[in-house]
User: Fold this.
Amino acid sequence: MKQTANLTGLLQRLLEHSRPLYSQGKVADYIPALAQVAPQQAAVAVATLDGKIFSAGAAQQNFSLQSISKIFGLVMAMNRLSDELWQRVHMEPSGQPFNSIVQLEWEQGIPRNPVINAGAILVADVLVSHYSASKTAFLTFLRRLTGVETIYADQQVYLSELEHGNRNAALAYLMKSFGNIEAEVPQVLEHYFHQCATAISCEQLARSLLFLANRGVQPLSNEIICSRRDAHRVNAILSTSGMYDQSGEFAFKVGLPAKSGVGGAIVAIVPQFGVIAAWSPPLNPYGNSVVAMQVISQLAEELGLSLF
Ligand code: GLN
Assistant:
């Protein structure tokens, strides 16, 4: 049963119980700007469809959105392209690390799904090719979803990724060699790194994705963000692939569509109820935050949120 009475107290308790897990993870350091983030920080926020927000810890502090940006990019691309998108990127779990290259060559430059790096770079190509100023369009979309006009991309993180993005560049050039990238690769990578560098807080993130828990309609403004069918499709992809090669375990333990990012955040969609966003920088070997995983798992269990 989904109860919100005393939810703030429950969030505080779960966060405090999970903090000892800091030491079991490691802050992402392959992007030098992210390595500078203090590890011992954590937050959780729950936004509900009736407009309430509950939180604990540093829930208004900004962190790097990283791969969670893949959700927003995908929704924008689905709003621009019809089913032809699904000929250029598939919807199967990869069972591989998020930045793996091997599968992409075997499968002729068609990424397994839009939430691994290759897939998100393909989506970035769609955005660059369909918007005159795709980076601004991305920020405008997030500002509209959060109602916060000051959402921005952190320049230091953006430049750091641009400088150290060789693996993502390799994925992009490989796809280009198969004819699956239309725009010029440097422009596509710039868009991708820029969206990953978005700075956001747990409270803002939880609010921004309420439309996925509400069949495509942002409940606070009643605005249609995507079709009901596309909200279903995004949730389906997040359920099977959002936690990379730990997606099966996450479904087994938690049973909610979810997405992680190497900034340390995880967001989980609870259809017809709301959105949970948790953040803490230390990551497990799959690139998923150890504290955020634990907080979301326990919250889902306590409130009986699993879809299964
Ligand atoms: N910007 C990061 C990268 O491309 C995103 C990865 C992630 O958050 N899993 O490597």
